[in-house]
């Protein structure tokens, strides 16, 4: 981004107006301004920039939010998945060896009349489905958007085929790029992510589905490593 700004000669007062194209799996691509894409909290000020607007919040709100998200059932992480080094393919293969069914990139689970393909979830075990996302906390929130899309399709009976399995629990499995483990989601330094999780959990409960969370860690990608995987 810095290189692009320098090459294009964009003045400082216009940087937040830069338009971005966002492409996430299972979602229709969309564009928006850089300002609308930022998740930024001013330390010690109880002020955050979210969805292009500055918003203030108080400690009571944070306490309520943390109590809510920490009340979501936390599924134990298998020892082999506490710290994940391999890429997505290796992880899916390892998960298959301990009872998970790989549904990653399977667009046949949910089929709607819309042209956009929907990836329902990544893994399945018994009656629990798992949406898995890897990266820093500030960049994995869109898994909640994907999960909400699946829940909305289920709510509206918009799937053109009957699901092959009963969904009793929906688990968001976060593989956080961080050096230290966490014991509860309130420890994550992203209010936006916690708000999205809280909203997703409420939608699950409205459908009689138990929301769950699961945590793993992975190495943080260096800038040079990230460029190789663009």
TrEMBL record:
Pfam families: DUF6119. InterPro entries: CHP04141 (IPR026487). It comes from the Bacteria. NCBIfam families: TIGR04141 family sporadically distributed protein. This is Uncharacterized protein. It comes from Frankia canadensis.
């Amino acid at each position: 981004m810095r290189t692009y700004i320098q090459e294009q000669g964009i003045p400082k007062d216009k940087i937040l107006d830069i338009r971005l194209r966002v492409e996430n799996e299972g979602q229709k691509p969309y564009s928006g301004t850089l300002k609308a894409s930022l998740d930024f909290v001013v330390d010690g000020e109880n002020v955050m920039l979210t969805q292009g607007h500055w918003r203030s919040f108080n400690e009571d709100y944070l306490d309520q939010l943390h109590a809510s998200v920490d009340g979501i059932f936390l599924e134990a992480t298998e020892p082999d998945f506490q710290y994940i080094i391999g890429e997505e393919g290796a992880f899916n293969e390892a998960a298959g060896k301990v009872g998970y069914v790989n549904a990653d990139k399977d667009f046949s689970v949910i089929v709607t009349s819309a042209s956009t393909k929907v990836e329902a979830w990544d893994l399945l075990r018994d009656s629990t489905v798992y949406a898995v996302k890897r990266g820093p906390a500030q960049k994995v929130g869109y898994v909640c958007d994907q999960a909400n899309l699946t829940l909305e399709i289920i709510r509206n009976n918009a799937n053109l085929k009957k699901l092959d399995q009963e969904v009793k629990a929906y688990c968001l499995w976060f593989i956080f790029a961080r050096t230290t483990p966490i014991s509860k989601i309130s420890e994550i330094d992203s209010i936006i992510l916690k708000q999205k999780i809280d909203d997703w959990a409420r939608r699950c409960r409205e459908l009689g589905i138990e929301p769950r969370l699961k945590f793993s860690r992975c190495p943080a990608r260096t800038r040079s490593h990230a460029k190789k995987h663009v």
